[in-house]
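Researcher: Good morning. I'm working through a list of sequences from a screen, and I'd like to move beyond sequence-only analysis. For each chain I'm collecting a predicted structure so we can compare shapes side by side. This is the next one on the list. No need for commentary yet; just the structure.
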Amino acid sequence: MEKIRIACANRGAGTAPVFSAVEGGYFKENGLDPELVFYPGHSRSLPALIAGEVDFTNAVSPELISINIHNKGDAVIIASAISRSAQQVCARPGLLKREDLRGKRWGVLVRGDADECSIAMAFERWGWDIHKDAEVVAVGSGGSRLDLLLDASKVDVAIMHAPEPFQALKRGWNFVEDFGRLDVAFQNSCAATKRRFLKTKPDLVSKYVRAYCQGVYRFRTDPHFGIQVIEKYSGETDRSILEPTYVLFARLMGGMMFPSLEGVRTAGQILHKLGVITRLPAPEEFVDLAPILQLEQEDFFAEMMGLKGKSTK
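Model: Good morning. Structure tokens for this chain:
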């Protein structure tokens, strides 16, 4: 068994590909012994990857792009679980529909993150101006994410990740918008490593991507297993929260599992418009398709879906 360290930015459903690969035994099946290392958000987990503290992480493209550009990092996306926006919008009591949200205080953890990018992306499609029609408020990471975002003294509208919107409903907040319905290419939950690591240990990275894809597929096709994974890692036990969380993510998750160049391009364009990065990067800077291409050439996906016998290689 080869030991690997995986940085996890949260315990929510967005990190379910990693959790599913652990719980399904797919890392061990591929000869890997994983250690999960938890950090408070992507702003901490991605620098840990760049610094060599961990070998892999489950990332989102805006933060990965920003970290690479600002810190001359070499983080690279090697597989995708979700290539669309997966955030939801909840609002304090009294705010019930989209128009009620115009001009209000929109809460995110940190400025320039994937959540602020999702706001900008939605506003562009709604015909709103993020600089005029919202006050984006960074609530920080000093405490429970849910408590920080649902502080009505600072925030009117919160960008959330399941199971948070369903937990917010229990606290009297309203579920107003689902950004997943925008159906815009946007590289969300994805597997990442460093280019140097990929270059020096291509076989290990291939094993990781194989296990990651197996985790994604199992989560998407096995509701009982998927709900158990969310319950174990999020700590949520309420079935009325767990079930809609699973349905939401299972519908978004999977696809081709190729990193989305268009989704990374979208993220880079939004970051540039927001002034988070000073140049407009090419998406190829942050993506390597080789590990997934290799699996496709080996008929891995057909095997995983039960259409062919497992390779004896």
